[in-house]
Amino acid sequence: MKATLLAKENGDAKFTIEFTAEEFEAARVKAYQENKNQFTIDGFRKGKAPRSIIEKRYGDVFAEDAINDMLADGYPNALDELDIEVIDQPRMEFGKIEKDAPFTVTVTVAVYPEVEVKDYKGIELEKVDAEVTDEDVNTEIENLRKRNARMVTVDREVKDGDHIILDYKGFVGDEQFEGGTAEGYPLVIGSGSFIPGFEDQLIGAKKDEEVEVKVTFPEEYHAEELAGKEAVFKCVVHEVKEEELPELDDEFAKDVSEYDTLEELKKETKEDLTKRKSAWAENQMKDKAVEIVCENNDIEIPAVMIDDEISQMIRELDMQLSQQGLSFQQYLQFLGKDMMAFREEVKDDAERRVKMRMVIRAIVDAEAIVATEEEIEKELELLGIQYGLETDKVKEMVGEKNLEYIGQDVKMKKAVDFIYENAKVK
């Protein structure tokens, strides 16, 4: 096989792939072996007719499969050989098929655009405050207390923040509606789990006494038969529990940490918060730096790249929804949108994502940023930690070919660091 570049202009690459007569013949033989059982010829058992007999009756019937088989490897190999990165499906023109002669395919395909990026050094950034206050530390300690609280059953009326066990029956008029009934339902008052106003009306309820809760379903409620309607829920609270927080003392510090005193716990908490907040602030400034560089550069983005990004966003959302037991189609129904409307809605965000990657990648090229073996190894280690796997196992799963993508991610991160390190932080 030989690949020859003819032209590269107007966002397209045009090249030829020439297969030798010997390669074409070998592909025909392979196609014959794989498909001969489909032909029935008088005088021969099924699958036993010679290729010459089949072709004499039906013509060069194995040529199409042979061409597809040659292109399965030949097309990607040609892209590698000519160093062409495509962004769309190719358009192919097939040459004349002749006996004992080479076969040529002429390919035209949209390629990744060349991008010249400017004004990415010396941009001005506002410093993001990363100071940790005593209030921040106290809030973190209070959250730690809540995580270590125990639930205690109390004999009193319901208050905000209580955990209750509830029975309820929902009615619209005199009709009890489907899906509006539950027994032994656990509910945290103030969690916002139910329709607005529902939980507030349970405050003050007494154990085992019926309480009527009157609500109006939102106009955009997912169950259309209930949307905008007034309803009454007959509720009975069977159990009330409240959080009992541990005392804030040295014993608490010993129970929840490796420290002997509350002061030591607070000191370590402040140091940990400082590291986290500093990292958060730096990431905020890096995001802003990339945003500014994108604003500094006008780039013509091929429509196909935006369409592909939208499709990728939909796949990502579909995976997230599936983890919650929902399908993407159900999600669209809940929003009251069709696929076309959704794609149009996320188009601007997709365009921003594509532009950001194009700009960062252009900086990778402009600054000749590389990914070292050590950096790629570190990235694989982080993936291993994320998925609970040994680095060698991650490397095996990723595969040699996909290591290139890992390296590209490393280079992109280094390019973002380069923008930030060369910025003027005020």
TrEMBL record:
The keyword Nucleotide-binding does not apply. InterPro entries: PPIase_FKBP_dom (IPR001179), Trig_fac (IPR005215), Trigger_fac_C (IPR008880), Trigger_fac_ribosome-bd_bac (IPR008881). It is found in: Cytoplasm. PROSITE patterns: FKBP_PPIASE. It catalyses: [protein]-peptidylproline (omega=180) = [protein]-peptidylproline (omega=0). Its EC number is 5.2.1.8. It comes from the Bacteria. It holds the Pfam family Trigger_N. It is an enzyme of class 5 (isomerase). Belongs to the FKBP-type PPIase family. Tig subfamily. Consists of 3 domains; the N-terminus binds the ribosome, the middle domain has PPIase activity, while the C-terminus has intrinsic chaperone activity on its own. This is Trigger factor. The gene is tig.
